[in-house]
Amino acid sequence: MLLIKLNDKINKDAWLLDDKQWVAERKKRWRRLSAFLRKGVIRPKDVKYYQTFFLTGLLHKPDDEFEYPHELCALILMILHPDQSEENLRGIYKYNVTLFNKGECDDDSVDFFYRSIFGSARDLTNLEGGYRDIFHGQEELYVKILYGDNEDEYKLRRKSRGDQNFSSLCSSMMEFILEESAYENEFRQYLIDFSFLAVEKTDFKERGRMQDDMPRFLQTIAHYELLDPFKNVNELRYDRAWKVVNHLRDRFNEPNLYPPLKELWEFAKTKEGRLTEYKFSHEYPILEKLHEGMEKLSPVKKRRKLPSK
Predict the structure, then answer these.
(1) Fewer CB atoms < 10 Å away: N or C end of the chain?
(2) CB 80 within 8 A of CB 54
């Protein structure tokens, strides 16, 4: 089976099976990690299967039935490998796409990353053995490996990826730049340029929350100096939030920005754009700072309508 060939190519030197202390620490970490994996990431009945690989580097025991869990993919082998160096992780991914003729994008791994780990388990950010114990703060590296590292790779891999749409980026980054409870290594902060490739596919005429969420997000980016929730509070979150805000401002200020989005952005930067109160602004009480000492503008009578596509 190809998975056996893949595992044969994986460097096993990182499993220090003769080191009793290493083995003991590995088992201790597995107890934390497996608790996380059972919470909607991997079917509970399959978790024990991955324990063997995590502790020994083997995909199966010789006396076991030769059967693999359905979600087994390169990403699982990557996150369970003791060697989390970029060279090793890229090597596993490269072996995988080559053996399985996946071209440039391993959809199985991306789906597991996006839907299973950061989808089913989004409420488990602070669980011991959670995201931090899976990625060790290297979400940026994993994003580069799975989604690409430059515009050419983004375009190539976007052909088969539809999950990172522009509106989902805005929604996740709104929380990231305003809420201290948001995960500091939220992976979408590293997918801004990738997600911008979907701007022209965004339905700016969509009714419902889209009519409030998009202009509210642009308003927040345009006037972030008035909010700045992490200043003198959390240096790491402060730096990362401003990195996101400045990156987005650069993209929004590009002269060839998609016209419907450009119209919204130009309005957001105005005084009227700052003072407009949107329907769901109450979800982030800090947005009240945008109106301090000023009269709010009605979200119904004076707010701008989303432009036609």
Answers:
(1) N
(2) yes
